[in-house]
TrEMBL record:
Any Pfam family the entry gives: RVT_1
One MF annotation (Gene Ontology) recorded for this entry: RNA-DNA hybrid ribonuclease activity
EC primary class: hydrolase
Origin species: Hirundo rustica rustica
Domain Reverse transcriptase: 104-293
UniProt-listed Enzyme Commission number(s): 3.1.26.4
Family: Belongs to the beta type-B retroviral polymerase family. HERV class-II K(HML-2) pol subfamily.
Protein name: ribonuclease H
Transmembrane domains' residue ranges: none
Entry-linked Gene3D superfamilies: 3.10.20.370, 3.30.70.270, HIV Type 1 Reverse Transcriptase, subunit A, domain 1
Amino acid sequence: MGIGNLLLVPEADYNLLGRDLIIEMGINIEVVNEEIKIKLCPLRVEDEEKINSEVWYTPDSVGRLNIPPFSVIIKDPETPIRVKQYPISPEGKNGLKPEIERLLSKGLLESCMSPFNTPILPIKKADGSYRLVHDLREINKRTVARFPVVANPYTLLSRLGPEKQYYSVIDLKDAFWACPLDEKSRDYFAFEWDDPVTHRRQQLRWTVLPQGFTESPNLFGQALEQILQEYQTGEGVTLIQYVDDLLIAGEAEDKVRAESIRLLNFLSAKGLKVSKAKLQFVEEEVKYLGHYLRKGEKKIDPERVKGILSIPPPKSKKQIRQLLGLMGYCRQWIENYSTKVKFLYEKLSQGGLVKWDEKDDKHLKALRHDLVNAPVLSLPDLKRPFYLFVNTDSGTAYGVLTQEWAGKRNLLGTYLSC
């Protein structure tokens, strides 16, 4: 049985692998620091035969949840938000055309005449295709947001415990687009599209939760959480959800394998799509929420560390805040974090331009050194006692949380500081 269409070009110096075939075979191509990384789908044939093939994302498929449409509340809706479309190059328009036609054919976009308008951007992907990005910043500013009921990623992994040895990570593809948008709210998400072939200019709007909308993660996350209440995990297996990323963990390989297959079929029955290319299936080490998990331990994603190390010293308060945001995600691995970033917070409280000197370079270098040499942290065992060691220094308090097992004291998933 064929799994895709193959294009043969005898004059080509290299074999061509079509995008449809890449998706069908679950091949994931990533460009990281000018290096190309290729990952093949880890599924065995006997495993895939047990999984409903409808769960896998393809360009011709779209997820759809059977839930009530979401409505959006905008402040001062009688004053429309109107932002002119940015100029788009001919290459960008031609790249967006097949994607917009696909979204229209699947009912994710529809024609409209709306008083609202915000711009779109064409973003070129590693495989040469284009992604549609809708700049919804002005809409986000006027949105009356619901209280965000999203799990804390810092404490979420504490549910795993050190005994877990095997993991599966399921990435839901275009998950927000599976959530219908109430018709009365759709005009807020309109944009202008100028077809490069027909030269017809029209407005289009989303019929589903758009990507880039401030409420989409919270609304989808709550919808999925309610759906997962119908799902009961087997004994000895833990299921963790963070928005559209799912993690299955267990001590026994066969149980994790069976649970992963059962969950994939459950998601398919509910109308969701999974990226086969990004599936991590019954592995001893997985990447989840910016961490690498292995045998009850977690460490920082090296790519995240490289990204922080590549940032030059900040020259403005905005850049300082950006640096603090990135460093803050890694604070669990940095001993006495609050003391070591105090010099950055002091600069935010100073008036005028940011002044950066050799002393600041030294402090920043020390932070980078701590990141490069970050320890591997143990996941907590909630059945064992905890030991908290605290200290104060220069107006800051910090502590280290540990547990004792196998005759030694293990550093847990956080350095505490304030």
